[in-house]
Write a sequence for this structure.
């Protein structure tokens, strides 16, 4: 896939509007990208990204994920010292919030590149550059002080190659921050399985996890990140975990996700329409205390 190498050139679909827009641009239709698009291309059905950027619910998911996890991610940026003059690459950016936060941190003397296999939800007129980029197929787009990816590699079947591309983009002394879910570590959506609605919710979560596995996701990937970064030659490796329990944002994310994967669940005979409708209604009514899989954040530095 060709990537425009000009620092200020933009090679992407027209601006889609903010992440709260009800539907993505028509140009995004059929794209295999996603909320943190892994850049998986090819004809094998099992490797199509399940949470496609081209669907209207993608924008709703970006907003909810930003509310849930941007504070965590920005805290890691602060911990790593991201500041004026830094060059940063946001991999599989999906929505706008993290590129905007990085651009604010590095200021006018810095540079932020946000890439995605489908950059339809990014702002082509923002304070960061946007490029279409496949993290598996394309070479690194430069060298950086920080490379960051959140909820990207867990979905990529060839995640080792993707990680190698990210490591290769680090300047000496540069930091790699990878944040990914570990669904096997905490597989429930309702921790308190107190009744039929909670049991149904967890049953649908198992169905969703099965779809992810069929598409090549590694549901245990989060826990491997510290070792993976050390094996990639990084030093000063450390990690932390976070996950929310309850609240309206978890509810909105669950409803958007269920709507996005509904057809896939039914087609795979992992759930039926009535079951999904009942679950979405219960979530919308605030009857469930939902949670997510833990987000494992791991960081390491390329030796000087």
């Amino acid at each position: 896939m060709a990537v425009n190498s000009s620092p200020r050139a933009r090679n992407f679909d027209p601006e889609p509007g903010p992440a709260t827009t009800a539907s993505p641009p028509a140009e995004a239709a059929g794209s295999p990208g996603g909320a943190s698009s892994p850049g998986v291309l090819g004809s094998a059905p099992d490797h199509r990204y399940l949470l496609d950027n081209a669907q209207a619910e993608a924008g709703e998911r970006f907003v909810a994920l930003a509310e849930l996890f941007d504070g965590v991610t920005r805290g890691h940026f602060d911990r790593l010292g991201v500041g004026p003059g830094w060059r940063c690459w946001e991999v599989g950016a999906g929505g706008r919030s993290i590129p905007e936060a990085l651009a604010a941190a590095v200021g006018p003397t810095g540079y932020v590149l946000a890439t995605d296999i489908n950059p339809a939800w990014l702002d082509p007129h923002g304070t960061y550059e946007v490029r279409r980029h496949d993290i598996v197929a394309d070479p690194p787009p430069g060298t950086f002080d920080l490379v960051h990816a959140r909820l990207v590699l867990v979905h990529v079947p060839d995640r080792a190659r993707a990680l190698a591309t990210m490591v290769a983009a680090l300047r000496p002394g540069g930091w790699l921050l990878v944040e990914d879910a570990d669904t096997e570590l905490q597989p429930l959506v309702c921790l308190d399985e107190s009744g039929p609605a909670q049991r149904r919710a967890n049953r649908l979560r198992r169905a969703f996890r099965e779809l992810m596995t069929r598409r090549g996701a590694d549901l245990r990937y989060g826990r491997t990140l510290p070792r993976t970064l050390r094996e990639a030659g990084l030093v000063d490796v450390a990690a932390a975990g976070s996950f929310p329990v309850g609240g309206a944002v978890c509810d909105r994310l669950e409803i958007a996700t269920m709507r996005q994967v509904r057809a896939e669940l039914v087609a795979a005979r992992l759930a039926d329409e009535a079951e999904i409708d009942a679950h979405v209604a219960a979530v919308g009514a605030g009857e469930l205390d939902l949670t997510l899989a833990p987000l494992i954040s791991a960081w390491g530095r390329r030796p000087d």
Residues 57-80 form the longest helix (24 residues). Strands lie at 87-91, 111-116, 129-132, 144-150, 170-181, 235-242, 295-301.
